Predict the structure of Cytochrome C.
Amino acid sequence: MKRAAVALAAVAALAADMAGLAHAESYDAARAKEGWVLNCMGCHTADGSGIPGKVPALRNSLGHFVGMPEGREFVMRVPGAANSALSDAELANVLNWVLDTMNPATRPVAFRPYTAEEIAAHRRPALTDVAKTRAGLVKRLQANGITAVPEHY
Ligand code: HEC
């Protein structure tokens, strides 16, 4: 009886530890930076500001997208992300890093980090109608009073 209680307490402590760990280590910053530099930065620029008229900013806008389930999927399925050479785990790592470091104010408090499993299940097929999907999402954000994500970039 006593041993069972001790074992249970140990399991509970371990589970609490693991939950803490999962939260603290939703990305590996060094690897994410490397993935970003090699696969995303060339178009989105070093700090994620994008290129006016050509490439959307990821800074201060992705957080708004991931607040909606369809937006969360959109981010995984845009061609630049979906078709990148990054593995599922690497793409999850890069996206979590972008959300944490470039979107601290726009990322929802309840944001659950992307996982390799989630990326694997959703990244393909890549979106073919990006502009239309994006316009629908921006319209929904605007309906919710969020005007920070520009319709045209
Ligand atoms: C060859 C240039 C290029 C590269 C490389 C690239 N992107 Fe993009 N990205 C774009 C363009 C252009 C868009 C606008 C949508 C479209 O036309 O695909 C975009 C859109 C996005 C969006 C949607 C943002 C919005 O406001 O609509 C996300 C998220 C994104 N890219 C993430 C990434 C990530 C992560 C990487 C690296 C793994 C990456 N992209 C690599 C050019 C690129």
About this structure: The pocket of heme C is lined by residues 39-40, 42-44, 55-56, 58, 61-62, 75, 78-81, 84, 86, 94-95, 130, 134 (CB under 6 Å). Residues 19-23 have pLDDT under 50 and may be disordered.
